[in-house]
Design goal:
The chain has 124 residues and is mainly β. The protein has no helices and eleven strands. The strands form two sheets. Strands 2, 4, 5, 6, 9, 10 and 11 form a seven-stranded mixed β-sheet that branches. The protein has a four-stranded antiparallel β-sheet with strand order 1-3-8-7, with no helix packed on it.
């Protein structure tokens, strides 16, 4: 059974940093793409970043580009999202996802598995 477990969320002041973690288990993810999305109240789920499990290059949404870095540690089966220079508009529930996409990895439909999410709140 595939499980994705996010951690690392919390309350931070504007300008601060957080590192989110996503621990993946239940299968080999070697051919998978790992993504981070976020969803604020009343808004659609938004693409944040993705990385191929076998790669090292990250791809980012326009709203976070330059402030966020995605990485993975194969030995720990964990994907990270380092977020810097946080803004109040970054406040959302952040979700980790895994999939073998037949469409752009920036789309939610590219992913088969989702975590439960971790809350990030940025105060002004």
């Amino acid at each position: 059974q595939v499980q994705l477990e996010e951690s690392g969320g919390g309350l931070v002041q504007a300008g601060g940093s957080l590192r989110l973690s996503c621990a993946a288990s239940g299968r080999s993810f070697s051919n998978y793409v790992m993504g981070w999305f976020r969803q604020a109240p009343g808004k659609e789920r938004e693409f944040v970043a993705y990385i191929w499990w076998s790669g090292s290059m990250g791809y980012y949404g326009d709203s976070v580009k330059g402030r966020v870095t995605i990485s993975r540690d194969n030995a720990k089966n964990t994907v990270y999202l380092q977020m810097n220079s946080l803004k109040p508009e970054d406040t959302a529930v952040y979700y980790c996802a895994a999939g073998r996409p037949t469409t752009t990895p920036k789309a939610t439909r590219a992913y088969n598995y989702w975590g439960q999410g971790t809350q990030v709140t940025v105060s002004s």
